[in-house]
Amino acid sequence: MVNLLDPLIIKGLKLKNRLVMPPIGTDLATNKGEVTEKHLSSYEPRARGMGLVIVEHTYVDFGGRFTATQLGIHNDSLIPGLKKLVEVIHVSGAAAAIQLNHSGGKCVESVCGMQSVGPSSIKYWKEPTRGLDISEINDLVHKFGDGAARAVVAGFDAVEIHAAHGFLLNEFTSPLTNKRTDLYGGSLENRFRFALEVIREVRSRVGDNFPLLFRLGADDFTSGGLTITESKKIAPFIVEEGIDIMDISSGICGIYHPTNKKPGFFVQMAEEIKNVISAPVIGVGGITTVELANRFVCEEKVDLVAIGRALMKDPEWGVKAMKALK
Predict the structure, then answer these.
(1) Which domains does the chain have, with CATH numbers?
(2) Alpha-carbon dihedral of residues 233, 180, 217, 81, nearest 10 degrees?
(3) Structure pTM?
(4) Is beta strand 52-59 parallel, antiparallel or unpaired with respect to 19-21?
(5) Which of 10, 159, 253, 297 lies 20 to 30 Å from 208 when distance is taken between CA atoms?
(6) How far is it, in rounded angstroms, from Cα 197 to Cα 145?
(7) Please, are residues 235 and 216 in contact by the beta-carbon 8 Å criterion?
(8) With 70 as the cut, is the pLDDT of residue 263 above it?
């Protein structure tokens, strides 16, 4: 029986255990998106005990910047700082991934320097969003690829593509925010077209043997939005395009389940996705005890478990968890 302490090998990358630090924005960067000493001191203790650390969402284009102090990966000048961050995580004993993102309609002009963009011209968040034309979509596909290439140069072991929590790729996958009538709107296939193109581009830039993760907002939990039934239909195609690990969270509704407040509130959804794909799945959702995390893995509901807020509250959570299990 597999448990939380067992290693997992993904395309030659060995994770020493099944514990994951998920990408949680720290807002510790400079206003140029640079890694700071505060990043290093934040990640160093939290990486101990974890099998995989997924560094917080980074913007692949300045127009997709979420906050003024969000970490960036849109410029080659950021690579030296990212290298330092990778080194700190590796010294602490964990593998290092980084999440690529564009905040889409969640951007505000005072932060990203332009009107926010998305699939359609609607007011989805704080300010009206301008719908992207196809040439702009193509350009952003390449910028995701550029970000992935920088991650490889910086020494990251893996890259995660962010398509959850109401950000740009999720805005395309959700009928609530995607009102397009062209190849990028309407049907499930069309709504996921942008995300699948990003996966293909990223895969082409990092090579066949580099692990790729995909954070899927699998259910909007809102009437008229993306449903888990649809996500189960598209998940096999996402994996087929080159994804090695699926990281399952919610969609437009954000980072919390609107009704289920029990620890592991997204694990059932992750298990449903796990049942229709061959790739390992990460489960998440307010899990605070190592006993519960271990149970989810032992019962084969998920393959890895992400611990977020408990780890932010106690940087030694991973070390304590490993000792408790051993």
Answers:
(1) 8-325 (3.20.20.70)
(2) 130
(3) 0.97
(4) parallel
(5) 297
(6) 10
(7) yes
(8) yes
